Amino acid sequence: MFGKNIEKTPNHRPSSSCSYDNDPEAPQVLRPTISNTDAPPPVFDPDTFNPPDGGFRAWSQVFAVILINALAWGYPASFGVYQLHYEESLGLPSSQISWIGSCQTFLTFAFCAPAGRLADAGYTRETVALGSFLAILGTFMTSLCTQYWQIFLAQGVCTGIGLALLFMPAVTVLGSYFKAKKAFALALGATGTGLGSIIFPATLQYLIPQIGFPWAVRCAAFVALFMIVIANLMLKPYLPPRKSGPLMEWEAFRELPFILFVLGAFLNFYALYFGFFYINVYARNVIGFTSVEAVSLLLILNAMSIPARPIMGYLADNVLGPINTFIIGLAALSIMVYCWMGVKTAAGMYVFCVFFGFANGACQGTFVGANASLTKDPRKMGTRFGMVQTISAFASLAGPPTAGAILDTSNGNFTYAQIWGGTVFLLAAIVTSGSRIASTGWVFLKKK
Fold this sequence. Notes:
Blueprint: E1 15-20, E2 30-35, H1 56-72, H2 79-90, H3 94-110, H4 112-120, H5 124-142, H6 148-176, H7 182-189, H8 191-211, H9 213-234, H10 256-287, H11 291-320, H12 322-340, H13 346-373, H14 381-409, H15 414-440
Antiparallel strand pairs: 1-2
Helix pairs in contact: 1-6, 1-7, 1-8, 1-9, 2-3, 3-6, 3-14, 4-6, 4-14, 5-6, 5-9, 6-7, 6-14, 7-11, 7-13, 8-9, 8-11, 10-11, 10-13, 10-14, 10-15, 11-12, 11-13, 12-13, 12-15, 14-15
């Protein structure tokens, strides 16, 4: 893509400058050439930057991100299956075992900041390759573990860090290929989360009784390896590297829209995992589902999130705007968690999971696009995405224990926890609305 164009003259010594690549699918950025002037190289201008917004290379990045999201966020969705096995095989309390899954999720969020900065600096492929190695290594080692500390290190720490290094650079690359269709492309890439949330739990649930836990985990690891090899081969960075710059863009916290968006994202992730962690418990303890039937609810929930993501992404680009769509998703989640209080039958649980899954897909599918809309310079997307994710890590770590503490103090009565979850989502919608108003003013019909 990049090359040199040497111009020879008899009277002048050439000096470094820059020119543009004529490849229509290549980034319209600067490349080194030799010219006859001492003028400084042109500066990257985000206002005039025009990515392809389509074409084979751009859409192939969407496919690569679908595969990466399937592993980065779909694989952790299978932890409920792991938890049941660990409780039976290790004889440890569920609260202790749940720290493995919580640690994995926390590290996947927390390491997004360094992963995003590495991507901005031009080390996307190296970072994704390292993340691939750690995630696959951690999964294979999990199949060999027999003690709690071994499982914690392999599945909680090694895999968690690997998933962060996979996810953040890939999303940054995808966002750089699109402008007018950015929210749709990012939401389409996020459908991988729903696919992975079906593939990995179903694989483990089916294979563990057939071939045993160790080989079932290895089969899941081989599926992940196949997906991630394809993704690594397809992923191609678009923007020129931004070598200088801090790990955290502290200047972003001088922007009121960004500050309010970060707070809204924190509240979103604070309540998000309450539903995923406790729908099974509610179905078993309150409705009377079996363990197998309870797992099927999660599969339905995750399946319904798949069509919601591209639909809302399209609306974000063409009708509503990314932040407006994200706010609607947060409000829908708030309503659904409040409605959960009225679910008292098996049929009601299935209907609830259909609507909750769609609302979750609508919200989380537009989250990244909303974040991107507040980042003017595309070369800072990785850093800013990573900052939001890293801050949200503490919310994802604290949310489920908070819900558990509410359940404990109310003797297993879900009503107070459901009120807490719905209220937190409502606050997230209100705060994010403040971010939108700070960005555009009190113009409600403006697409933002």
